[in-house]
Specification:
The complex is a heterodimer of chains A (about 210) and B (about 220). Chain A is an all-alpha fold and about 210 residues long. Chain A has 8 helices and no strands. Chain A has one domain. Chain B has one domain. At the A-B interface, helix 1, helix 3, helix 4, helix 5 and helix 8 of A face helix 1, helix 2, helix 3 and helix 6 of B.
Amino acid sequence: MNVDTLTHAIVSGMNAGLEQFLEGTLAAMLPVIWLALLGLHLGRPYILDMIDRFTLRLGADLLWLIYIALRDILIISGVVMSFMFLFPDVVSTDQLPLTGGFAAVLLFAVLLIKLMGDPDHNLRDFRLVTWLLAVGALFYFVPYLFGVMFNQVATGQLLAVSQFLVSNTNATWAVAIGYITTALFAIMGAIAVGYVLMTGGRAEVPETTSK
Amino acid sequence: MNPNDVQTAITNSLVQGGSQWLIATIVAFLPVLWTMALMLHLGRPYVLRTLRRCGLRLGADIWWMSYLLMRDALLLITFGLSWFFFEPNIVAGMALPITGSLAALFLLLSLAVKLSRRVDDDVNAYRLSTLFLVIGATLYYGPLVFAVEANSQSYLSGFTAAFTSSSNVTVALVLMWISLAGVALVAAWLFVRALMSANRSMGRRLKKEKTEVVIGATGGGE
């Protein structure tokens, strides 16, 4: 072994290790983001109740704006951080929840409904968003809890189930789900772009007052 | 191998590895920025709907300003971080999406539309800016997902070899030089436009001030 070989080995090790560390950190942050966005979405009645108690209109406006900004930024962050589920190399190397990509798709669908509908004022849209978030959370938390976080203590049949739910021990399924996720993202992205091009970026949905 | 050799190897690794890690991290972070920028740009109807419901002008102004700042700053930062797609050594030496430089050019075109026309008032300008942004994002995402991040998939090996910069250096460098020329042209146009606009507006102001001084002097004389 000479200096060049050793240098090359250390560089490769550093890059591979740090990449996996970064992806692992993102994967560890995602459950926190999911919990926070679910909490904020489900906490809507509490916020509305608080807004009614404000005596000053400015305070009520600011509370509502901060609430929706936080809630929606968390949803966007969830989609963005789930981008790694689209990369075949990443899902077949790292320990990720098998259906994390589907969870990201449902989060993206929530954003699409927010863009084209009005979940804050239309009951049907709000219900749809709530269902999508609930199913998305199941798609993320079930394989995360019973796969990624369970495979070291599980035995027998449970171990087989656990390994099935982790992307790098079920790479064929994980890559296939990755491709389906990519296709769904592309379709929904195209719908969003089509809608925005048609409306020219204007708010087109008529005002409704039912809450 | 003696301790000096190991020391040299570790030093070289930290320098080379650190540089590669930094670039690789930016490459990994760029899809995040692209996606955030796209979402904020496409989310304009939602932001406007929220804005309409603000009871007070102050809340609406804060909301709109925050949105504009975040959206446009993200576009600018994404273009800034895409700069290494125009550095030949990096394009040839690292596995990058081969059309990354073209994506950066389209991002700059979208920014140029924003700078030259009132995108938030002119529907057609908004549509043009959106189109540039979507083309740029597609040029970035496609090779990233199916080439750079799909090395492990043997059935994609042809696509991977063709669309990764380090394995198709000639095409990557040609695309890079073409994009660089495009960036230079757009930048020169923006420079000339900014200069002419400043000359026009400042000239008008100076002329107005001069007229006021003359009127003042004439009035004082009477």
